[in-house]
């Protein structure tokens, strides 16, 4: 992973503070919604690059900025804890956004163990209420 760009950090912090101060409305999730990894599976040992496929049931996928009930878009967290779930999700090399509605990606990860977790974000990259979060999985890259 690369060094995080300080300018991006400052913009993200400013935006997060603005959202909290503005009291932007939160988007409700559906009780039946479930977010999961189609692949890889927890504990898998893989050769890189690693293709990650996102699964979502009980709600739909829509690009960021699309305000449609019961939809959101994927965010993938790599080797990092969950960020606050009441603010826009950060965007950096550990927090990847799939704002075009993508449901898979291919990652080049260094050899070793890696933790992956998915979070569904609403039109404004803010997790739903209650948040829709996958199980955190660990994979090993050879």
Total of helices: 1
Rg measurement, Å: 15 Å
CATH class term: Mainly Beta
Largest sheet: 6 strands, mixed
Low-confidence runs of at least 5 consecutive residues: 1-21
Describe the structure.
With 142 residues, the protein is mainly beta. It has one domain: Immunoglobulins (Immunoglobulin-like). 12% of the residues lie in helices and 34% in strands. Strands 2, 4, 5, 6, 8 and 9 form a six-stranded mixed β-sheet that branches. The protein has a three-stranded antiparallel β-sheet with strand order 1-3-7, with no helix packed on it. The chain starts with 5 loop residues before the first helix and ends with a strand.
Secondary structure layout plus pairing:
Blueprint: H1 6-22, E1 34-39, E2 45-46, E3 50-57, E4 60-61, E5 71-78, E6 95-97, E7 104-107, E8 112-121, E9 137-141
Parallel strand pairs: 2-9, 4-5
Antiparallel strand pairs: 1-3, 3-7, 5-6, 5-8, 8-9
What descriptive keywords fit this protein?
single chain, 142 residues, mainly beta, Immunoglobulin-like, 3-stranded antiparallel β-sheet, 9 strands, elongated, disordered N terminus
Give a quick summary of the entry.
The protein contains one helix and nine strands; from the N terminus they run αβββββββββ. It has one helix at about 5-20, and strands spanning about 35-40, 45, 50-55, 60, 70-80, 95, 105, 110-120, 135-140.
């Amino acid at each position: 992973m690369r060094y995080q760009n300080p300018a991006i950090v400052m913009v993200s912090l400013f935006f997060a503070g603005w959202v909290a101060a503005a009291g932007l409305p939160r988007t409700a999730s559906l009780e039946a919604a479930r977010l999961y990894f189609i692949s890889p599976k927890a504990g898998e040992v893989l050769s890189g690059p690693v293709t990650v496929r996102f699964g979502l049931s009980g709600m739909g996928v829509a690009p960021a900025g699309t305000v449609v009930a019961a939809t959101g878009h994927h965010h993938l967290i790599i080797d990092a804890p969950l960020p606050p779930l009441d603010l826009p999700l950060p965007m950096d090399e550990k927090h990847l956004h799939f704002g075009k509605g993508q449901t898979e990606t291919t990652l080049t990860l260094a050899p070793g163990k890696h933790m992956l977790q998915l979070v569904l974000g609403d039109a404004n990259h803010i997790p739903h209420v209650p948040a829709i979060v996958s199980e955190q999985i660990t994979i090993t890259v050879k």
